[in-house]
Amino acid sequence: MPIEIKELHIKINVDEKAAATTNATSVDEAKLMQAVSESVEQVVNIEQRKKER
Questions:
Q1: How many CB atoms lie within 10 A of CB 7?
Q2: For residues 31, 32, 37 and 38, what is the CA-based torsion angle, rounded to 10 degrees?
Q3: Predicted TM-score of the model (pTM)
């Protein structure tokens, strides 16, 4: 049975001091960007389903 996401809340804490390390943040930024893009896709799908109803 598929899972339907009705609401999506994203909370991000930004620490400017952590931005000084370049090697670790580039990997983390890639993972973060992937997670954000997946979340946006899910939100778009939810909105499309709402319009179909």
A1: 6
A2: 70
A3: 0.48
Alpha-carbon distance values, 35 to 1, 8, 12, 27 (Å): 23, 13, 12, 13
pLDDT in tens, the chain (53 residues): 788 888 888 888 877 775 555 555 566 788 888 888 999 999 999 999 888 86
CA distance 39 to 49: 15
Over the chain, what HEC string results? CCCCCCCCCCCCCCCHHHHHCHHHHHHHHHHHHHHHHHHHHHHHHHHHHHHHC
